[in-house]
Amino acid sequence: MSEIQEIQAALLEFSKDSFGVQGEVTKLSKVEDGWEAEVEITRDDQYKKRHGLPQMIERYSVELDEENEVVSYQKEEARPRGDVEWSRGE
Questions:
Q1: Buried-exposed string 22-36: b where 16+ CB fall within 10 A, e elsewhere
Q2: Rounded to 5, what percent of the chain is helix, strand, coil?
Q3: In this structure, is the dihedral angle defined by the CA atoms of residues 18, 85, 29 and 36, taken in order, positive or negative?
């Protein structure tokens, strides 16, 4: 398994352990002292399902160290499923 596949697997495991759902890695970059990534998760909200409201998709930035351990994460934003664009501050 390549290093990038190992990082992706670590991020998916982190997502499942931290949020209870397996996320999707949408960005992964090697940096000087580890990796930076973005992970999107879909919240399974029974209330919203029952009332026909869209589920929420959350985007997190995640930093990993040289040993591929998650050292920090932060929710960047949430949007209803179906919204096309994130409002990134880039």
A1: ebebeebeeeeebbe
A2: 25, 40, 35
A3: negative
Number of other residues whose CB lies within 10 A of the CB of residue 20: 10
Q: What token pair was written down for 30?
A: 């090697």
Could you report how far apart the first and last alpha carbons of the chain are, in Å? 33
Q: What structural domains and CATH numbers belong to the chain?
A: 3-80 (3.10.450)
Q: Which two tokens stand for residue 46?
A: 């029974």
18-71 residue pLDDT tens: 998 889 999 999 999 999 999 999 887 777 677 777 788 999 999 999 998 999
Q: Environment class of residue 8 by beta-carbon count within 10 Å: exposed (0-12), middle (13-18) or buried (19+)?
A: middle
The rounded distance, in Å, linking the Cα atoms of 32 and 42 is: 30
